[in-house]
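Researcher: Please predict.
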Amino acid sequence: MNRIAKHRERLGISQRKLANDLGVSSATVAMWETGRRTPSLKTANLIARYFNTTIESIFFNEKDNDK
């Protein structure tokens, strides 16, 4: 499962709520979660702040952080 989805489900919020809170469509959130699209850096920062975490923890593998 995608990390955006994991964070979203951990908070118990729907794709629609996340989309509304971030100012994007539900379809956009669905595409992020399925890997069909990647958010811009600006939006990735908003997502990380929304989940009170870092961009790295959402978008990079643990192994990537060790490089």
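Model: The CA atoms of residues 17 and 26 lie 8 Å apart.
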